[in-house]
Amino acid sequence: MADEQTVITQTKQWIQKVVIGLNFCPFANREFKNNTIHYQVAFNSKRTDARDLILQECKRLDRDRSIATTLLIFPNAFAEFEEYLQLVAFAEKLLIQKKYEGIYQLATFHPLYRFENSAPDDPANYTNRSIYPMLHLLREDEIRKAIKFYGNAEAIPERNIQFAREKGEVYMQMLRDSCF
Predict the structure, then answer these.
(1) First-to-last CA distance in the chain?
(2) Number of helices (H), then strands (E), in the chain
(3) Is there a contact between 11 and 44 (Cβ–Cβ < 8 Å)?
């Protein structure tokens, strides 16, 4: 079992090599370089613990504007993708219930990520396949600013899918796995 610092270091490697390196998110490089990403590792595996952590991180973002985004990393929990999807649904409802809808948005990453109606071996799934199950809390206002600056943001997912399919599953898996 990896310790907290190892999990964070590996996550940073994944961000550098995959997210930034493949330009899957053109907004990530700025936040990474500016050190405005907060990494919160959770070793507990209960959904109630995840609930508390999500709310804790929303409150942290409320208090600290120097943090642009938070990654909640679950190295020992939600290993099954269906279980993770239940967590995502729970987290989305929680954001609505606690009046964070429109303030924060969730992005989802998982080692077994699979887009709806895609084959398990579709390389496109690697656009969201991380090294650990993660919930990414983003500030809605930061997203709007980034989209305004970047322009044509709606083309990003299709470009990423095409790129991943051109590279193929073996390449995408090897690159992701090199972050461990």
Answers:
(1) 12
(2) 7, 4
(3) no
The two structure tokens encoding residue 159:
């470009």
Contact 60, 38 (CB under 8 A): yes
Q: Count how many domains the chain has.
A: 1
Mean pLDDT of 149-171: 92
With tokens 């980034």, the residue in question is 146
> How many angstroms separate the CA atoms of 33 and 29, rounded?
6
As a whole number of angstroms, the distance between CA 162 and CA 85 comes to 24
DSSP-assigned states of every residue in 112-123: T---TT--TT-G
pTM for this one?
0.95
Domain span at residue 132 reads: 4-177
Name residues whose C-beta falls within 8 Å of residue 54's C-beta, 6 or more positions apart in sequence: 72, 91, 94, 95, 135, 137
Give the pLDDT confidence score for residue 154 in this predicted structure: 86
Q: What angle do CA 78, 15, 168 make, to 5 degrees?
A: 85
**Separation in Å, CA 123 to CA 29, 72, 105:** 23, 24, 25
